[in-house]
């Protein structure tokens, strides 16, 4: 039994070259996205898409109460039907999140090469994965295991969420405002670099009183 387990692990480990993903941040605001499926998995993915202000269409014969409420509130379109290839012809991103492998396979076959495709139960057929995400204002932290273990990705996300709390999100928002001010009002390049470096230092964040500290730095530099 042990030998079989070792042989299996060896076969899996040496199965082939590891495919490395290329992390990007997509601006999907007002972009057409179709989610196939109306269950809990689909609902979870939909909430992330709504945060990014995507234009969402859900295709499913039935849907969770949460998805129905979102549809009733006009936050997405729900097509109460089974999937057909025409449902995704205008989509930029396609997400198959049903518990029916035949339906997910049909979605994969219908998708065009130029479309971004995520199959919830088949990372090998997908050309992108949705990472575990932490959002703190303008700060976004994404964790991915490349489809190996979403559970581990969620564990890491929870650890990072403790380190980077809501206060850190306010700090990132503050940095954005300061950066805009510096770029618009500080012409000296050396002074600009010193200011940007100083406010990004961890010691600056920990001191608190960021506005007062920033005004002081403007006078010092």
Automatic annotation (TrEMBL):
Pfam families to which the protein is assigned, alphabetical: NAD_binding_7, SirC_C, Sirohm_synth_M
EC number: 1.3.1.76
One of the GO BP terms on file: siroheme biosynthetic process
UniProt superkingdom: Bacteria
Catalytic reaction annotation: precorrin-2 + NAD(+) = sirohydrochlorin + NADH + 2 H(+)
This protein's pathway: Porphyrin-containing compound metabolism; siroheme biosynthesis; sirohydrochlorin from precorrin-2: step 1/1
Coiled coil region boundaries: none
GO molecular function: ferrochelatase activity; precorrin-2 dehydrogenase activity
Domain Siroheme synthase central: 136-161
InterPro entries xref list: Met8-like, NAD(P)-bd_dom_sf, SirC_C, Sirohaem_synthase_central, Sirohaem_synthase_N
Protein name in the entry: precorrin-2 dehydrogenase
